[in-house]
Amino acid sequence: MKKRLKDQFNDLNLDKKVKYLFIAIILIYLLVFYGIYAFIIQESMIEYTLESNMNTLKSIGNNLNAEIESIDNMSQLIMTDKEVVAFLKSDEDDFYVKQEAVRAIYDTMNLFNNVSSVFVFQEDYEYVSSGIGVTHIDVEKLEELLEDVRPRAGGYYLAINGRGAIRRDIEWPVISLIRVVNDLETQRPIGSIMINLSVDLFDNTYRNMTSENKSFGFFGLDGTVLSKQNYHEALDAIEYSGASYAQETIGNEGIVSYQVIDNTPFILKSYEKIHFTQVLTDEAGKILAIVFFVSVLVIGMIGFFITRYITHPIQRLAGAMKSVNTGWLRRVSLPLANDEIGYLKDSYNDMLVELNELISELLEKEKSIQQAELEVLQEQIKPHFLYNTLDTIAYLALTEPAENVYEAVDTLGKFYRKFLSRGSREIPIKDEVEIVKDYLTLQRLRYGDIFEDVYEVDPELENIRVPKLILQPLVENSLYHGVRLKGEKCIIKIQVFEKEDKVHLVIYDTGIGMDQKRIEQIMEGKSQKSFGFKGTIERIQYYFDQKDVVTVTSVVGEYTCVDIKIPKGGNKQDVSSDDY
Question: What is the CATH number of domain 382-567?
Answer without folding.
Answer: 3.30.565.10
